[in-house]
């Protein structure tokens, strides 16, 4: 556990500086929030589960040609990462209609999409992460056109790797959110986490939700669902 004050504290993670200016330590917390922190909760083991899932997936994504900030898992709840400047644009990739996409467009959850949909949101707690388009991000200086082209390319590459990876483990990857960072060299890398907090996972056979919608929608069984996802993610097939 770190004793110094975090550089940044988010809803589910803290980021600490290290003795090495090029590296941070990320600590995953047990806190859960939804609807822009209007709903709050926590359960024991959530941070450790999300840390373990992310620490398992990021090296596999690296092997698949996606550069990431991940260096190593340090403990149950901590990982060492490369220090990046986070691009304040959250990237959502959708395989299947669900969540805010259905609300916005009047669709039934579960409708397959003809092709993956990439959406951008402005990363702002104060504004509730509003949907934007790439012109907005470029005009307001949040990312360059070249950065966004690369971010979209990497986001779709993550989708192309993860969708069959989860399918082989009995899970439909419905949608997910990514964040990207910039290294001092200017290189864009995948940052943040990939976990049941940031993805929708539906059991391929039963349709059971194995993600944060259990918490958001008061379905119960969130700890069990997250533990099940850790089992599936780390399963050799
Ligand atoms: O709510 P919505 O349907 O837009 O969410 C799409 C995907 O992005 C879901 O997998 C959700 O968990 C994730 N997401 C997230 N953080 C946000 C908004 C959405 O991880 N701030």
TrEMBL record:
<dbReference type="InterPro" id="IPR033934">
    <property type="entry name" value="SAICAR_synt_PurC"/>
</dbReference>
<dbReference type="GO" id="GO:0004639">
    <property type="term" value="F:phosphoribosylaminoimidazolesuccinocarboxamide synthase activity"/>
</dbReference>
<feature type="domain" description="SAICAR synthetase/ADE2 N-terminal">
    <location>
        <begin position="7"/>
        <end position="232"/>
    </location>
</feature>
<comment type="similarity">
    <text>Belongs to the SAICAR synthetase family.</text>
</comment>
<dbReference type="InterPro" id="IPR028923">
    <property type="entry name" value="SAICAR_synt/ADE2_N"/>
</dbReference>
<keyword id="KW-0658">Purine biosynthesis</keyword>
<keyword id="KW-0547">Nucleotide-binding</keyword>
<keyword id="KW-0067">ATP-binding</keyword>
<dbReference type="InterPro" id="IPR050089">
    <property type="entry name" value="SAICAR_synthetase"/>
</dbReference>
<dbReference type="Pfam" id="PF01259">
    <property type="entry name" value="SAICAR_synt"/>
</dbReference>
<keyword id="KW-0436">Ligase</keyword>
<protein>
    <recommendedName>
        <fullName>Phosphoribosylaminoimidazole-succinocarboxamide synthase</fullName>
        <ecNumber>6.3.2.6</ecNumber>
    </recommendedName>
</protein>
<comment type="pathway">
    <text>Purine metabolism; IMP biosynthesis via de novo pathway; 5-amino-1-(5-phospho-D-ribosyl)imidazole-4-carboxamide from 5-amino-1-(5-phospho-D-ribosyl)imidazole-4-carboxylate: step 1/2.</text>
</comment>
<dbReference type="InterPro" id="IPR018236">
    <property type="entry name" value="SAICAR_synthetase_CS"/>
</dbReference>
<dbReference type="InterPro" id="IPR001636">
    <property type="entry name" value="SAICAR_synth"/>
</dbReference>
